[in-house]
Amino acid sequence: MEQLIGFAIFVGIAVIVGTWLAGLFLECIGFFPFCWGLAKENPKEENPETSKLTLPTGVVTKEIIPPGQGEIKYSGSFWQAVAVEPIPEETIVQIVERKGLIIHVRPFDADKEL
User: What are this entry's molecular-function GO terms (predicted)?
Assistant: First the structure.
């Protein structure tokens, strides 16, 4: 009986760890390609005329008030965001760069983009 209980505990732990590893693997498959798109070596070296057209955009979900953080929604995920100027909720922003888990944004100005 004690061996059966020990085996049940072992199987339970194995299922929990296996499920966690499978979830981590699936998250990485969907998450890392997104990160690779944001992680540019040095975006300032790009041509300024074309870089404005290629920067991804998101929507502010929690107001960004510098020097504090706000929140944006980009590609179905929520990210902590900072900006140089205050940006209210529901504003479309351009993603300038990513440092760790913090996204640096600026307001999207359609007139300047064209």
Answer: peptidase activity
Q: Where are the beta strands (DSSP E) in the chain?
A: 57-62, 70-74, 77-82, 92-99, 102-107
Kindly give the pairing relationship between strand 70-74 and strand 57-62: antiparallel
CATH value of 43-113 in 2.30.30.40, 2.30.38.10, 2.40.50.140, 3.40.50.1820 = 2.40.50.140
- Average pLDDT of every residue of the chain: 79
Q: Is 87 exposed, middle or buried (0-12, 13-18, 19+ CB in 10 A)?
A: buried
pLDDT digits (tens, 9 = 90+) for 35-46: 555 554 444 454
